[in-house]
Amino acid sequence: MQPTSPNFKANAKAALADRPLQAALGKLAQGFPMRRAEAAARLPEFERLRDQARDIKDHVLENLDRYLELYEAKVVEQGGQVHWCETAADARAAILRICRKAGAISVTKSKSMIGEEIAINDFLEQNGIEPVETDLGEYIIQLRREPPSHIIAPAIHLSLDQVADTFLEKHTDLDPNRAIREPRALLEEARTRLRGKFLGADVGLTGANMLIAETGSNVLVTNEGNADLTYGLPKVHIVIASLEKIVPTLEDATTILRVLARSATGQDMSVYTTFCTGPKRPQDLDGPEEYHVVLLDNGRTKMIGSEFHEMLRCIRCGACLNHCPIYKSVGGHAYGWVYSGPMGAVLIPNLIGMETAGHLPNASTLCGKCESVCPMRIPLPRMLRRWRQRQFAAGRGGFVAKTALGLWAGLVTRPKLYRFLMGLGVAALGQLGSKGKFKWLPLAGGWTQVRDLAAPAGDTFVAQYHKGPRGDQSGDLIRKGWRP
Amino acid sequence: MSDARAQILDRIRGGLGRKAGDPTNPAIDRIQTHGKNLIPDRGKLPQDQQVALFIREAERVAATTAKIPHFDNVPTAVGDYLRRHNLPAEVKIAPTERLTALAWQAITVAGGRGEASDGVSVSLAFGGVAETGTLVMASSPESPNTLNFLPMDHIVVISAADIVGDYETVWDRFRERARRAGTEVMPRTVNLITGPSRTADIEQTLQLGAHGPQRLHIVIVDEPPA
Lengths: 484, 226
Ligand code: SF4
Prior knowledge:
Chain A is α/β, with parallel strands linked by helices.
C-alpha cells in the first residue's frame, strides 16, 4: 500500500474524532492488557522466560547467516524450496512464478504481516489471480480494502454494524433483508463463504511465526484454524516469511511460544500451533504436493549491527500496541502503513525510510510501557529516541522546535542568565494563567486545543528550593553552584 | 535468486563484522545439542497429576473430556457424545487399525481424510501436554490432518500414558521415533491443539467455531497403548 505516514498528524486528528474507532479502542485498552496481566500472573516463570526468549533471538541474530544456511539445507533435504528475496518486488515475483506454474486461479491466504508489507493481494489481483484472506478480521478488511489496524487483530477498529454493512454491501448474492446484526450471524456467513474458497483454492499462502533451523519447519499460530485449512487443502503451500523469523531448535521455538500468546491475547497458548515441514509424505492422504518458502529481506539485513538491530527480535505479539497511550488514542491506521504502535514507529522508518515515516517516532510519550511489556525486551523507547536524534541531525525538526531548542541550548550554558529569565518567565506565566491553567498559549496550540496546560505556581524549582527547608547532600551541591 | 542469497548473507556478515567461511559454528552445536530451556514447574508434575492437570487446562479452554478404562470403550464414549449433542450416528475416523478394528455397533464409520461433508471426526493423538491442556496431532497416512479442521465436532482419543508434562518431552518422543524409524524428526504436519477454534475479530466478542471445529472432545484411555 501507498504509505500515508507523512500525514500522521491529520490521520491522528481524524481518528480522535471517529466515534466507532474510539469505542473499539476503549474496549481494546481494557481487554488486552488485563488478559495479558492475568496470563503472566498465572505463570511464575514468565519473567525468566522473557529473558530466555530475548537471549535466544540475540543468539540467532549473532549467527543469522549460519542459521539461514542450516535452515535452507533442511528444507531442501525434505523436498521443499527456499526463494531468497531482497525486496518486496522480488517476493511478489517469486510468488507469482509459483502460482503461474501451478496454474493457479485462486489463492487462499492466512494472515501474514509480510503479505501486507509486500501488498501481495493487489499484485495477485492485477495478475488475474484471486487472493482470499481467510482470517476473519483480514477477510473483513479485504472486503473494505483497508490495511490492518492492529498486527494481531486487523479489524479491531470496526464496530459490529460496520462489519454487517460491509457484508450486506459485498455479499450481493444473499438476501439483502437477512438478519445479520449480531456476531454469530456474521461469523456463520463468513465461515460458509470461506469454506467454498478453501475447498476451491489452488495455492495456499501462509505467513510464519517462526522458522526452525533444526527441522526446516515453519510455525503457524492461529485461533481460528484458517491457516490449517489454507495450507492443508490446496496442492501448493507457499510460506512467506522475513528472514529474522529463524529460531534454532524445537526447544527454542517452545520457549518463544510460552511468551507469545500470553503477551498477545493473554491465552496460555493459541488454539492452533502448527509445524509444517516440507511437502506431504509419499503415503499421506492430505497435505500439499509442493512446499515453498519465500524468504524476504526488504531492508532487514541493513538493521543488523545498527542501532535498530534489537528490533529484529520482535515476534509481532502486539503487546506494545495494546499498552501504548498513543496507539490506544489514535488506532493503527493513523500510522499510515501496515505496522503501527511503538513497534511500527521503530520499524516503519527502517523499511520505508525516515523521509516518509519520520513523524512516527514522534508519536510517543516515551512513557516506557511498551518496553515493560515486550516479551522480547526490546528497548523501544531508546530506539524511538534514536530516530528523533537522527531526524534532528538531518535538520528535519519543525521550525518552532528547532528555534526553541537552539535558544534553550544557548541559555543553559549561561546558568545565571538562564535562571534569571526562567524566573521572569515563570512569574509572568503564573500571572497570566487564569485559575491555574491555560486554555491557549502561543506556539503551543497543538496542546491547548485539546486540553489545558497547568500554569506555573509563580516560582522556579531552584528558587523554591533555596527558600524551603534545606535538604540533603545533593541540595548542598546545588547551593554551592555545582553543575553536572 | 542465488545472487540474492549471496547478497543477503554478505550483508548479514558485514553487519556482524564477520567474514564468510569462519570455521567455528555455534549454530551447529546448538542444533545438535537442542538443549532444554526453562520449563515451567507446572509442566514437571508426577504422571498421575499430569493427567489431572491436562484435563483442567483443556476444560479451561472450552474442550470437554471423558475418561474410559479401555480402548474397547471408545465407540461407547463416541456414542454418548453424539447423543448428548443430538448428532447423527455417523463419524469419520482416522484410518488407523486402532480405531478401525473397534466394534462401532450402531455408529456408521468411514475411515479416511477429512472432507467438507464430515460432521464429526474421531482421531488419535500423538500426545498431550498437561502444561496447557494441549493435544499433539502428528500427520501420517493413518492420521490425516484434515480430520482436525474440517468437521464441526472433533473427538480425539488419547492414551493417558501419552499425556506428558511439557512440550519438550513430546519433541524428544518425536526424535526418538525418528531415530528408530530412520526418518526425519517432524512429520509433514504437527498440530498443537488447545481447545476448539475461536475468534474475537468481530467487536472483540469471543465466539467458538471460527473455521475449525466448534467443539473439541477429548477421550482419555487409561489402558496403555499396545
Ligand atoms: S516490539 Fe515487542 S511487544 Fe511489540 S510486537 Fe514486537 S515483540 Fe511484541
